[in-house]
Amino acid sequence: MASSLRGVARVQPNSKTLEEARSRTFDFFKKACRSLPTVMDIYNLHDVVTVSQLRSSIAAQIRKNINVTNPKVIDMLVFKGIEELTNIVDHAKQRHHVIGQYVLGPEGLDKDLGMQDQGSSHFLKRFYETNYF
Amino acid sequence: MSFLRALRRVHPLIRANFSNSRVTSRWISSTPDLHNPEAAAAAVPEPEFRPRTPVGGARIEIQNPDDSVEVFVDGYPVKLPKGMTVMQACELAGVDIPRFCYHSRLSIAGNCRMCLVEVEKSPKPVASCAMPVAPGMKIKTDTPIAKKAREGVMEFLLMNHPLDCPICDQGGECDLQDQSMVFGSDRGRFTEMKRSVVDKNLGPLVKTVMTRCIQCTRCVRFASEVAGVQDLGMLGRGSGEEIGTYVEKLMTSELSGNVIDICPVGALTSKPFAFKARNWELKGTESIDVTDAVGSNIRIDSRGPEVMRILPRLNEDINEEWISDKTRFCYDGLKRQRLNDPMIRDHDGKFKPVTWRDALAIVAEVAHGVNPDEIVGIAGQLSDAESMIALKDFLNRMGSNNVMCEGNGLNPQADIRSSFLLNSNIAGLENADLFLIVGSQPRVEAPLVNARIQKTVRATQAKVAYIGPPANFNYDHEHIGTGPQTLLDIAEGRHPFCSAILSAKKPAIIVGAGLFGRKDKDAIVAAVETISKLGGVTRPGWNGLNYLLLNAAQASALDLGLVSSPDVIRSAKFVYLMGADDANLDDLPKDAFVLYQGHHGDRGVYRANVIFPSSAFSEKEGTYENTEGCAQWTIPAVPTVGDSRDDWKIVRALSEVAGVRLPYDSLMAVRARLSRVAPNLLNVDARERSTISEELRPEFKQKLSMAPFGAAVENFYMTDSITRSSKIMAQCSSTLLKK
Ligand code: SF4
Ligand code: FES
């Protein structure tokens, strides 16, 4: 009983207004930016990425949810962000996780080659990716 | 029913011996009314006469109403021709009779007694598989006597059958297991030791656990009747009965794998599949075999991305329900030696993986750097029609018309379909009463066509004459010559065989595709046609002039017009090998650029400069036309390996990179294109009759060379890139082909 109460007590109450949720988001972003130098050190990222690139990558991830207006949902997303950040700072992840997710992004290595395929058909673009289309 | 009587005799004894113990209550009685058959029979409700669905879609044609009889199965009237069996009557009435030894494609043995039914006025239950129907017979399949008879047979069978089910590969698809669940009793009375039998060595394909055998003799009958080898037999009597090969000898038949399917228990199972998977974890995909030109219907059983086994599928017109050992066991080749990345040969001669982008760009550049007529495309023996039409369209757009398919030889005749197809159809061969086999060894080239000939010879004593190198036949034949000289003799009426062909009602000539590679092919064909005219081999309603192809791709390649002559290779600068491993590249100039597109690192790779990985037949949807002109589809069973792509997609992508974009983006669009070139390829599972038009045929003025015919297939077990990389096939060729 005590243990479950302890868990409950730690969680912040929901934001009451959109304003409050917004400020929590900013707090989270600042916190993330502050931990970036440590992250660079832990995962030895100096030769693959710069702090400012990582920062914009975080900003981009936050901006992806720009259309969310429900404070509860924003709280939830911020919570997930904090969890991810803690995992990274605690070294619960490995180098390739960080590189794959925040340095290369979901498109992987092909991102910068996009220019080459300009003018080629939909078929060819799909062909380069997979056999199944 | 003698054993039943025996049981009754034993019964009081058992009771006497154990009367004071609890064993008395173990007297088996699954249904209480078994002890009182008469009372139970009286209680049978009035039968209703609703039409019933016959078992397995069974149907009969009554040709002569005078010869038909009417019998009653459980009160339901059935009409069927005289001479059919009680079991067939029951099947027509929609009653499935349990059985072990009966198999519709084998002779009747009647030795398992599982199919006992009660017939009114007969003193004891009869074995329905062996008993012919008599007019007015009243058959009862559901009475206590029939049930008790089955239960008794089951008990006797299980007496010596080991309790192996948890470690038996047949588990889950075992007839004995299923039927003992339905018809068996829930306990046995035998407490003695079970007998055990020494396992036999039948070679690298069939695993034997002979203790499990129930002596149904299906395998013995299969070997002698369908496979045509007298290798298996029954030894000993009574409880010492064993199935074996008499002497230390392997089973040397190209159809031996089928005994695995017909064995109702786990006595004969697949050796390569042993302990690999349980049948209920497998996903079945109905597909087509491509290792020979027969196009056997198969089911590919896969688990995840792996092909676990290949089984036959019923198709009366092509493979009945058999497949050859090569078809059944080549699947481990699909896991070995696979190409999974596009690769380019470096300056040091080693291949280095590159991306599709780079590979396509390099090939497109090279292709534009040579003269159009120095570009040559060769389709391999496993190519499907879609990729061949794409290859031909691509090369045509590049300005070249040098597209061919390996195995089709010099200057192939593609305009008249009857000049390269098995015109009487595989099933139609059963009507022939005389065979002249010219330069073909059907046993190794197309085992299932051979099985048909064997079946015909066995059923009707049809005569077989053979011209070619000494070869192995599993039926009576007459070896009348080794080369074109004999053909000439027959054509000119000097040979004793002429009288035989003249007196035959439906003679069939089978010309092997191995002869297509000879320089004097046209002259040979002309000679064969003279014989055919002479003997009336083609007549209204019967076209017995057959060509037996070797490879899965051959027929559709000819239909699509991939007909240039292999001579163009001499001046080629850019060679597109689409899975072609057996093309002769000796004459290729040293500086030519070779692109190999295929699924296996086989012969074609040795000379290649660039490799495109493609998908194998188990991974793609493709159209294949078999040797009788029947188009069929393969269905993907497993995902592709690594970064490989379907053949036609690669050609389509390359065409775009090379700036001559082909106008199709989907399989449907490719098939639409196919329908314009060869509409018959879209009529899946139908055979388009080829018209006989001798007059249209160009005149041949060629000299016949007197060199004897050669063998087209040297090693039955290894004929293409898949079978060559299969370990099981390698074992087979080392143990079974030992001279
Ligand atoms: S091995 Fe199988 S098929 Fe052959 S007799 Fe025994 S049970 Fe029947
Ligand atoms: S099936 Fe009739 S005796 Fe075996």
TrEMBL record, chain A:
GO terms for cellular component: mitochondrial inner membrane; respiratory chain complex I. InterPro entries: Complex1_LYR_NDUFA6_LYRM6, NADH_Ub_cplx-1_asu_su-6. It is a peripheral membrane protein. The lineage of its organism: Eukaryota, Viridiplantae, Streptophyta, Embryophyta, Tracheophyta. The keyword Electron transport applies. Belongs to the complex I LYR family. Keywords: Electron transport, Membrane, Mitochondrion, Mitochondrion inner membrane, Respiratory chain, Transport. It comes from the Eukaryota. This is NADH dehydrogenase [ubiquinone] 1 alpha subcomplex subunit 6. One of its GO terms (biological process) is response to oxidative stress. Its main location: mitochondrion. It is found in: Mitochondrion inner membrane.
From TrEMBL, chain B:
It catalyses: a ubiquinone + NADH + 5 H(+)(in) = a ubiquinol + NAD(+) + 4 H(+)(out). One of its GO terms (cellular component) is mitochondrial inner membrane. The keyword Flavoprotein does not apply. GO terms for molecular function: 2 iron, 2 sulfur cluster binding; 4 iron, 4 sulfur cluster binding; metal ion binding; NADH dehydrogenase (ubiquinone) activity; oxidoreductase activity, acting on NAD(P)H. Residues 282-338 form the 4Fe-4S Mo/W bis-MGD-type domain. Its main location: mitochondrion. Core subunit of the mitochondrial membrane respiratory chain NADH dehydrogenase (Complex I) that is believed to belong to the minimal assembly required for catalysis. Complex I functions in the transfer of electrons from NADH to the respiratory chain. The immediate electron acceptor for the enzyme is believed to be ubiquinone. This is the largest subunit of complex I and it is a component of the iron-sulfur (IP) fragment of the enzyme. It may form part of the active site crevice where NADH is oxidized. This is NADH dehydrogenase [ubiquinone] iron-sulfur protein 1, mitochondrial. GO terms for biological process: ATP synthesis coupled electron transport. Residues 145-184 form the 4Fe-4S His(Cys)3-ligated-type domain. Signal peptide: none annotated. Its cofactor is [4Fe-4S] cluster; [2Fe-2S] cluster. Residues 67-145 form the 2Fe-2S ferredoxin-type domain. PROSITE patterns: 2FE2S_FER_2, 4FE4S_HC3, 4FE4S_MOW_BIS_MGD, COMPLEX1_75K_1, COMPLEX1_75K_2, COMPLEX1_75K_3. It holds the Pfam family NADH-G_4Fe-4S_3. SMART domains: NADH-G_4Fe-4S_3 (SM00929). Belongs to the complex I 75 kDa subunit family. Its EC number is 7.1.1.2. It comes from Platanthera zijinensis. Keywords: 2Fe-2S, 4Fe-4S, Electron transport, Iron, Iron-sulfur, Membrane, Metal-binding, Mitochondrion, Mitochondrion inner membrane, NAD, Oxidoreductase, Respiratory chain, Transit peptide, Translocase, Transport, Ubiquinone.
